[in-house]
UniProtKB/TrEMBL annotation:
Presence of the UniProt keyword Glycoprotein in the record: no
Coiled coil: none
Highest rank taxon of the organism: Bacteria
PANTHER family linked to this entry: EPIMERASE-RELATED
UniProt cross-references to Pfam families, sorted A to Z: GDP_Man_Dehyd
InterPro entries in UniProt: NAD(P)-bd_dom, NAD(P)-bd_dom_sf
Listed name of the protein: GDP-mannose 4,6-dehydratase
SUPFAM superfamilies: NAD(P)-binding Rossmann-fold domains
Domain NAD(P)-binding: 13-322
Entry annotated with the keyword NAD: yes
Keywords assigned by UniProt, alphabetized: NAD
Length: 337
């Protein structure tokens, strides 16, 4: 398979650059010699210090610039696009979290709907060569068929977060149809790893287990997630930047991919992996299934492999070991010397 390498002469705008996936992807592009413009509102949904730590990694690169701003600020975006010849937009900025969308629904409409609309408008008027944007495995909602395929109907979301992500796909499809904007949607499946999001289960479980605190285990641990290590996510997205059929199809330049490990793990097995890596036992308290949660996620990645020859393959044990090594260093749980 002859894949095009990432073009280091282009300028890449990464929204959500101080976020988990955004930082790792930006770092990868920067290490390849690309010019990256980072964009993030640095909100306090979780610890801003973690976002600052990610940002400090990126600021070490000379060809990185950063803009602290919100996607709903259309005037700021217009000024940014007008002053920079942005070739590729990778929109990872969004309000994340399934359960939080039940508590603060208005935040999701502003960030995930209005903000994404503004990005589409910038791509329309400034003629970017490719838009890649974060969707989510949450769009599959209450689908019973597994593994989840991008050919499945996804019209049964069970959270507002999922509904906003499906809306993003529909909006991108419309703009691709009307204005021939090459757009590639990325349905991420439970991403984890160093510098990850503290609201994710693997992160909060690790913190609680290390501190001998109780963890909440929903549905008695009988839930399955297609945990996908961050390096696999970055590799998949990097390959798609220059090789997605969306940028070659002139009739309808639009494509959606699952990026998942293609191997769901039980929640209770995740806890056991953390116990093994930390050498400590979890103090568990069991709860029923939470509103907005789904029982299982499982990615069919056939089209990802067919188009760019890549299949994520990091095991949960290896990935959790790497995460906990980072966690201990970051929070000074072990001697960094």
């Amino acid at each position: 398979m002859n894949l095009k390498p990432v073009d280091s002469t282009k300028t890449y705008l990464v929204t959500g650059a101080a976020g988990f996936i955004g930082m790792h992807l930006s770092k990868k592009l920067l290490s390849m010699g690309c010019k990256v413009i980072g964009y993030d509102n640095m909100n306090d949904y979780y610890d801003v210090n973690l976002k600052l730590s990610r940002l400090n990694i990126l600021k070490k690169f000379d060809h990185f610039t950063f803009h602290k701003a919100d996607l709903i600020d259309r005037d700021y975006l217009e000024n940014l696009f007008s002053k920079n010849n942005i070739d590729v937009v990778i929109n990872l900025a969004a309000q994340a979290g399934v359960r939080y969308s039940i508590e603060k629904p208005h935040v999701y409409i502003q960030s995930n709907i209005v903000g994404f609309f503004n990005i589409l408008e910038m791509c329309r008027y400034h003629k970017v060569s490719h838009l890649l944007y974060a969707s989510s495995s949450s769009v599959y909602g209450s689908n019973q068929k597994i593994p989840f395929s991008t050919e499945d109907m996804v019209d049964q979301p069970v959270s507002l977060y999922a509904a906003t992500k499906k809306s993003n796909e529909l909006m991108a499809h419309t703009y691709s149809h009307l204005y021939k904007i090459p757009a590639t949607g990325l349905r991420f499946f439970t991403v984890y790893g160093p510098y990850g999001r503290p609201d994710m289960a693997y992160y909060s479980f690790t913190k609680a287990i290390i501190e001998d605190k109780m963890i909440k285990v929903f549905n008695n641990g009988d839930m399955y997630r297609d945990f996908t290590y961050i390096d696999d996510i970055v590799e998949g997205v990097t390959r798609l930047i220059e090789n997605s059929p969306a940028i070659f199809n002139k009739t309808l330049p639009y494509k959606v991919y699952n990026i998942g490990n293609n191997k769901p793990e039980r929640l209770i097995d995740l806890i056991q992996a953390i116990e093994h890596s930390t050498g400590k036992k979890a103090i568990k308290k069991y709860y029923p299934m939470q509103a907005g949660d789904v029982y299982q996620t499982y990615a069919d990645i056939k089209n990802l492999f067919e188009d760019v020859g890549f299949k994520p393959n990091t095991s949960i044990d290896d990935g959790i070991n790497k995460f906990i090594t980072w966690y201990n260093q970051y929070y000074n749980q072990v001697d960094m010397n």
